[in-house]
């Protein structure tokens, strides 16, 4: 279905938990973040009902995210149940990769083929610092296992923080020479109550692209340049994989935004950067009909805002009440 600005809304991101086994510096505060209570989080049955109804409104693509989706018990069975919803053409998962080695095979057997793994440093000590506790080896082993069992494409999400991991841009780009991965450079967004430490900050993807181009020229993929969702996609000469740039801050893509977000506590959010949310959990738990729920979702789609209220220029801060971990990225 189309919104009031003639955008076709067909993509739903579903955050199945606000909990995480990491605490990335750009996503969650170090401490003091209150987490949802068990009763407040939607059950898998409730998620499945909402997704099934959302498909009637034209949703064809679902990405499961979090928090960390692999920490929620029953996630593999949930992915398998999503696969049974007729009308869904594309089901994928975004994970930090810590538990991927353990779950890759079962996830593959559940029928999903597309996976995004977030990885912001290839140096163990820096990885531990950016995630405040993570073990890089586990993520690398998780990616290798996902590759072995047959996931394709495997996309590696890299949030680049000036002063922290911008010196690893070429190392990440070089991964695509040997592996068929899509490495995606994501601009840091100042969302939520996290604050980067002094000295760290936003860096535009234009700067990253220039750095890679100096190393080896990038070719746009496809005749007119390929886009993959919000990512502009390129290849290094001789590379097996691709390099994507997601530039939400320097080149906003509101005009082509096709997505809704469902939070773990059952709120439907039509813009990442706007806190207006519509509560689906209360009507759901009060016994509303499918038709009533469908109408609520349709209204959210129709009224999806054209732009975030302020343009997010470099350095400009937009505060959202939620952290990324509770929206799902
Ligand atoms: N825990 C999973 C993971 O890290 O992949 C899924 C949830 S995480 C919130 C989803 C994506 O949002 C990750 O790729 C993460 O890097 C990205 N993200 C989190 N905070 C961000 C921020 N402030 N700016 C840009 N991307 C962010
Ligand atoms: Fe957890 Fe993902 Fe946020 Fe890192 S980016 S704290 S892994 S939810």
Which structural category fits the helices and strands?
alpha/beta
Q: Give the name of the CATH architecture.
A: Alpha-Beta Barrel
Assign an overall shape: globular
The run of helices and strands is EHEHEHEHHEHEHEEEEEEEHHH
> What is the CATH superfamily?
Aldolase class I
CATH structural fold name:
TIM Barrel
Count of alpha and pi helical runs: 10
Say which molecules are bound, naming each kind only once: S-adenosylmethionine, iron/sulfur cluster
Q: What is the CA-CA span between the terminal residues?
A: 23 Å
Q: Provide the domain count.
A: 1
Write down the CATH class. Alpha Beta
- Share of helical residues: 25-40%
Specify the biggest β-sheet.
Answer: 13 strands, mixed
Radius of gyration: 19 Å
Percent of residues in β-strands: 15-25%
Provide structural commentary:
By secondary structure, this protein is an alpha/beta fold. The protein has one domain: TIM Barrel. Helices cover 29% and strands 19% of the residues. It has helices at 44-56, 75-83, 100-109, 124-131, 136-149, 169-178, 205-215, 281-285, 290-302, 324-327, and strands at 11-15, 61-65, 90-95, 114-118, 154-160, 182-187, 218-220, 226-228, 231-236, 242-246, 259-262, 267-269, 277-279. Strands 1, 2, 3, 4, 5, 6, 7, 8, 9, 10, 11, 12 and 13 form a 13-stranded mixed beta sheet that branches. The chain is globular and about 60 Å long. The model is unreliable at 311-317 (pLDDT under 50). Bound molecules: S-adenosylmethionine and iron/sulfur cluster. Iron/sulfur cluster is lined by residues 20, 22-24, 27-28, 66-68, 96, 118, 324-325. S-adenosylmethionine (SAM) binds next to β3, β5 and α10.
């Amino acid at each position: 279905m189309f919104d009031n600005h003639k955008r076709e809304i067909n993509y739903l991101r579903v955050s199945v938990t606000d909990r995480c086994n990491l605490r990335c510096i750009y996503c969650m505060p170090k401490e003091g973040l209150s987490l949802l209570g068990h009763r407040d989080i939607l059950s898998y049955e409730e998620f499945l009902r909402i997704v099934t109804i959302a498909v009637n409104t034209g949703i064809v693509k679902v990405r499961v995210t979090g928090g960390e989706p692999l920490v929620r018990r029953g996630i593999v069975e949930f992915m398998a149940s999503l696969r049974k919803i007729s009308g869904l053409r594309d089901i994928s998962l975004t994970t930090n990769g810590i538990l991927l080695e353990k779950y890759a095979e079962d996830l593959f057997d559940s029928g999903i083929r597309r996976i995004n793994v977030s990885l912001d440093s290839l140096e163990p000590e820096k990885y531990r610092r950016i995630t405040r506790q993570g073990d890089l080896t586990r993520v690398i082993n998780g990616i290798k296992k996902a590759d072995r069992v047959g996931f394709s494409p495997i996309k590696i999400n890299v949030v680049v923080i000036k002063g922290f991991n911008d010196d690893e841009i070429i190392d990440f780009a070089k991964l695509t020479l040997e592996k068929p991965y899509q490495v995606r450079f994501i601009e840091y967004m100042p969302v939520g109550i996290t604050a980067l430490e002094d000295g760290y900050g936003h860096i535009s993807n234009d700067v990253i692209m220039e750095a890679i181009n100096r190393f080896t020229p990038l070719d746009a993929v496809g005749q007119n340049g390929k886009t993959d969702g919000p990512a502009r996609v390129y290849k290094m000469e001789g590379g097996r994989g691709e390099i994507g740039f997601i530039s939400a801050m320097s080149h906003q893509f509101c005009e082509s935004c096709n997505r809704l977000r469902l939070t773990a506590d059952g709120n439907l959010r039509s813009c990442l950067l706007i806190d207006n949310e519509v509560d689906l959990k209360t009507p759901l738990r009060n016994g509303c009909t499918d038709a009533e729920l469908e109408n609520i979702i349709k209204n959210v789609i129709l009224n999806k805002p054209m732009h975030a209220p302020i343009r997010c220029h470099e350095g400009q801060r937009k505060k959202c009440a939620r952290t990324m971990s509770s929206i799902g990225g």
